[in-house]
Every structure is written in C-alpha cells, then in structure tokens.
Amino acid sequence: SARPQRGPPGMRQQQREARGHGACLCRASEEPAVVQGGDTILVAGATGGVGQILTKKLLQRGFHVKALSRSKQKSRELLGDAANLEHVEGDIIRKETMAGILDGVSAVCCCAGTTAFPTLRWLGDNDPEKNSFFGPRNLVELAMQSEGGMRRFVFVSSAGVKRYDQGPPYSILNAFGVLVAKEKAEDFLKQSGVPYTIVRPGRLTDAPYTSYDLNTLLKGESGTRKEVLMSVEEKLDGETSRAAVAESCLQSLLHSFMANTEFSIESVVGEGPDTDNQEWVKRFKAMA
C-alpha cells in the first residue's frame, strides 16, 4: 500500500517530542482542538469489553456515539438504544463496508481486538494481522481523508509492542504476530498527520459484561486497584482494568495537550481518578 502522507514539519516535531519526552505533554498552545460534548465519536469494536464501557461513558458525558461493529443486532443487544447512540454495521478489515462511516465524526476510538492465539474469533479473517493492523490502517486512511480534518484518533494498543524481541512474556504473546501488527498500526497512525493518542494497557481485567447498564459493566472493576500508573515509556507490565482503559481513552479526547502522545497504563492499589477530569490531567502531566 502507499506510504501515508506525513503531517507538516511542525506536527512531526511535536510527534517526535511527544514520543521522547513527557515534559512536552504540558505544552497545549499549539495542539489541535479538543472534542466537546455534542460532538460525534466513532467507537470501533464497540461490542468488545473496552468498547462497551467506553461507549456508555461517552453517552453519559453527552457525546453522540457511532458504535461500529460487525453486527448491528449484537450492538443493540449489548448497548441498548439511546437518542445519542447510532448502531453502525461494518467491518474495519473490509474498507468497502465503511463508506461514509466518518461523516460528521470528530474523533475515532479504535478498541477493536482479537485473541493473540488461534481461537474461533479468528474466523472470518479476524486474525491478528488483519484485525490489529489492516483494520486500524483502514480507519486511519479514512480519517486522513475526512472533510474538515479528524480532531483525534485514539488507538488502544498493547503493552509489549516495543519488547516482543526481548524474551518472555511478550515474545510468547507475539507468537502469532499480534504485537508486531499493533506496532505497525501505531507507526502508520503516527505517520499519518492525524492527531493521535495511543493507549497501551497490560493484560485486561474485568469481564466484558454483556449488559447495557453501566453499573453492571463496571461491577467487576479491579477491587482496590482503582488507581492508574501511566508512563510515556513502553515499560509497564501490570494488569489493567478495562474500565480504566476506557476512561483513559475518553480523557485523552477531552484534553488538547494529549494530542500526539502515547502512554502505557496499569491498574494499581489506590482510590484513583475515577471520572474526575482534573485528576486525570494531574496524572497525564506527571507521566514520565
């Protein structure tokens, strides 16, 4: 495929700084505009564990959500119906199924994923290479072409994307190429010129409850581990609550200084920021 067009030199410099130094996260003056309540957010992988929780959180905060999945019926069963929720059927692996999918969309959150090892979820071309690279690449290409410009693209990646060649456990997790695929998707996004945030959770905890009641979705949150530890370096190894991943995605959308950044996240013992915007700002700006 054609190499993506890079952003302007100023943006490329921002990207390089954001990747290398946590300090520049505090520089907000030249960052792309923040998304706000009432804007439309596309959630890809909306019927997955993180996608379900993120969709409900966005709806609660007043965003309009396009919930993208391969089954509109399943999406409706899991997420219910709301005035600001639109169930959209499409497959990110098949670009022809996504015509017009980003019309009116201000930001994209890509939470799609598949299993690292062969399971029935690989059926229908849903293996790691296609699900974790081809699919996100298709979405990024559409975002690059969106009229008016995409304000943010949040990509849920994984711990280990920079360490799969350093032995277990990530060499094992990458046995069928899932971390290589996610790394390629990250690189494509960073070169695209679309303002991005990359989130790298550890092993996900808390079952993806099949209910559209938010309290039920959150009931399995990790006990006393409600605090989040985050780093701009790809070095964390702990487990991460799906609820924490979802909230970090949402918070990344809210704050303009989080454009063109990447961070690892894990759940640790403590009360945590919950949904408090300013508490998340403190933690984002303290990342090292």
Please specify the SSE layout and strand pairing.
Blueprint: H1 9-20, E1 40-44, H2 49-60, E2 64-69, H3 72-79, E3 85-89, E4 107-110, H4 128-145, E5 152-156, H5 170-173, H6 178-190, E6 196-201, E7 204-205, H7 214-218, E8 227-231, E9 240-241, H8 242-254, E10 261-268, H9 277-285
Parallel strand pairs: 1-2, 1-4, 2-3, 4-5, 5-6, 6-10, 7-9
Antiparallel strand pairs: 8-10
What structural category characterises the helix and strand content?
A: alpha/beta
Question: What do the pLDDT scores average to?
Answer: 85
**Which percent band covers the strand fraction?**
15-25%
Q: Outline, from the CA principal axes?
A: globular
Q: In sequence order, what are the helices and strands, one letter per element?
A: HEHEHEEHEHHEEHEEHEH
- Share of residues in helices: 25-40%
For the terminal residues, how far apart are their CA atoms?
Answer: 35 Å
